Amino acid sequence: MSIDSGFVIAVGTAVLLIMAVFIIIFVAYYQQKQAKQQLAYKEMQAQHRRDLMAATFRGQEEERKRLAEDMHDGIGTMLSVTKMSLNQLERQVGGDVQLSFQFQKTRSMIDETMTNVRRISRNLVPTTLERFGLLAALEELADRATDTDVDIQLAYTEPEMPFPPALDLMLYRIAQELVNNAIRHARARHITIQLFSVNNEARLSVIDDGIGFDFDAVTENKQGGLGLRNIESRLSVVNGHVTFDVAPGRGSQIHVQVRLHDAQPVDLLS
């Protein structure tokens, strides 16, 4: 009888152990499945955010293109017609020195306005970028922004393979924003734009000798930090990264890194 009781206890214990192991395995499997589902959900959310940002930037570029076309075809054409009409009027009136001086002054104002319209149009849609690529567009950006107060240099190495057009546009917009910030806010006198391709990675840096800024204070400002947040948002679309080596009272170094294989699928130009 004792043997039967021991046998029953052993069998019962074995059954309990098997059930316990089964429960542990089931709980572990369930937790692992839940973790995978949560990870997949987070990845879907992240991809959805990237898709939304990509769509936003596509919309911005389309609006820039529309505005540039309106300025060139509308305002630019009207200014040209106005200048022609002014020249005809001058020939009809003719003779008076005072009137001639006024005509010349008005013509100069029209010419200056036309130059500004062309400059704004080029800033809205960098045609050099579309025609000749990123390096040519950055050289043009540096040349246009260089004057008696600011010197901008471009240092680069030719990439082995051309960057995707969408990445060209993204890096150009980031460089444009950083150069404008260095001139307008940091009051820099010397700016260097660096562009390199290293280990299948695009690296863009903008280095200046300006007065710097407090990164936390700027980014907390909803209006003042918009440009920097836009840079981070643009890079998040392609899993890029930006490092701000900045502080008040000294020059700034801002470094952008984008893995080229991450930049391939994103299209900001369509």
TrEMBL record:
Top EC class for this record: transferase
Protein EC: 2.7.13.3
Transmembrane segments: 6-30
Keywords per UniProt: ATP-binding, Kinase, Membrane, Nucleotide-binding, Phosphoprotein, Transferase, Transmembrane, Transmembrane helix, Two-component regulatory system
Positions of the Histidine kinase domain: 66-262
SUPFAM superfamilies, per the entry: ATPase domain of HSP90 chaperone/DNA topoisomerase II/histidine kinase (SSF55874)
Protein's UniProt keywords contain Transmembrane helix: yes
InterPro entries named in the record: HATPase_C_sf, HATPase_dom, His_kinase_dom, Sensor_HK_TwoCompSys, Sig_transdc_His_kin_sub3_dim/P
Single GO MF descriptor: phosphorelay sensor kinase activity
GO cellular component annotations of the record: membrane
Catalytic activity: ATP + protein L-histidine = ADP + protein N-phospho-L-histidine
Superkingdom per UniProt: Bacteria
One Pfam family this sequence matches: HATPase_c
Matching PANTHER family: NITRATE/NITRITE SENSOR PROTEIN NARX-RELATED, NITRATE_NITRITE SENSOR PROTEIN NARQ
Protein name: histidine kinase
Protein species of origin: Spirosoma radiotolerans
